[in-house]
Specification:
93 residues; mainly alpha; 4 helices; globular
Length: 93
């Protein structure tokens, strides 16, 4: 039995969870609109649908560690990695 990579697990989940493929297509449409940073609110960065959170926790546990500073650094690394591209709202990240 082979172990799935993060990308394979995400793709399989998108294919199997009802409605998730549509959610991901809407995210692509939102990305095409090139959202800007919002004054006083913060940066629009990632949009990770709820059904994919358990996969993220399983494959990227460093994002959910109790040390906030280490978790923040892990999130920054993830945002800059190619693996986050599918979830990016703002393609300029």
């Amino acid at each position: 039995m082979s172990v799935l990579t993060f990308s394979e697990a995400v793709s399989l989940t998108i294919a199997l969870v009802p409605g998730l493929k549509g959610d991901m297509q809407r995210l692509q449409e939102l990305r095409k609109q090139k959202p800007k940073d919002m004054d006083g609110v913060g940066r629009i960065g990632l949009n990770i649908p709820n059904p994919l959170i358990p996969i993220l926790k399983q494959y990227k546990p460093e994002l959910y560690q109790s040390d906030k500073q280490l978790a923040d650094r892990a999130w920054l690394r993830f945002i800059q990695s190619p693996e986050s591209e599918l979830f990016r709202v703002n393609s300029q990240l």
